[in-house]
Amino acid sequence: MKIISWNVNGYRAITGQNKKIRLDDVSYENKLFEYVKQEQPDMICLQETKAEPSQIKEELIAPPGYDHHYNWCRIKKGYCGVVIFSKHKAKESKQEFGIEEFDQEGRFIQADFEDFVLMNVYFPNGQSGEKRLKYKLDFYDGLFDYANKLKKQGRKLIICGDYNTAHNEIDLARPKANTNTSGFMQIERDKIDEIINNGYVDTFREFSSEPEKYTWWSARFGARDRNVGWRIDYHMVTDDLMKNVTNSYHHDQVMGSDHCPIVIELDL
After folding, report:
1. How confident is the model at residue 20 (pLDDT cuts 50, 70, 90)?
2. Would the pTM count as exceeding 0.90?
3. Which end is more exposed in the chain, N or C (fewer Cβ atoms within 10 Å of the end residue's Cβ)?
4. Which residues pair with 10 in a beta bridge?
5. What is the pLDDT of residue 127?
6. Stretch 51-56: mean pLDDT, rounded?
7. Distance between CA 185 and CA 52 in Å, rounded?
8. Which of 25, 115, 162, 171 is catalytic?
């Protein structure tokens, strides 16, 4: 089984409904469907979709052969949003984890399958000030309090998405210059430590200890071309599921967003 996670930074842009601009290149290509056709994942989780189904052309709602589960921001159009596409029919799906101030931003969607629960999460960015940093940290606590209840019930979890935090110095190109930047502040990194200490595994680091493996690059100053990036996208799994994980890696040459897709493979 192959599960992909990708912050697409605009669903309508990456599917060609709206134009996508990178530097001087204007494109209407459906890069998402092309990628899905090539990779044939069992499931693909997208973040920062910035759209609700009513805003998407019918033929672009989902790649052929995939069920779709959408969530979107209820308080601001064109903001946040997540979707799960799956070849396998979910037993149940839900758009909330039970805290209104977080649920209303459309950052979470869950699909329950026979062998595991899949959560697709777009964690907040804390760069706009102390209030938003607190919101981000409280979101971590609320989401994982919810996840831990399922974990205690014996459910195996995959929690993928854009965590908006680089865990260790190896996970960004310029750690010393960013110690006071949200995304690499110690208080945020401590949250990732806490998650791991509570029985979740950062799958990528189980398969790679290499530096310069990033998942997001600023659109400024040619950062991606120079590989000045951050690893802020993760597939976290409960430790009881790790024995089924056979690989975890990045598709860092795939274009279409300021993030690249990340992949986990499982034998179930």
Report:
1. low
2. yes
3. C
4. none
5. 86
6. 96
7. 32
8. 162
Q: What's the rounded mean pLDDT across residues 122-129?
A: 92
Please give the structure tokens belonging to residue 139: 């979101």
Q: How does residue 27 score in pLDDT terms, banded at 50, 70 and 90?
A: low
Helices 130-152 and 186-197 meet at what angle, rounded to 10? 0
The reply to whether 162 belongs to the active site is yes
The structural domains of the chain, ordered by start, are 2-266 (3.60.10.10)
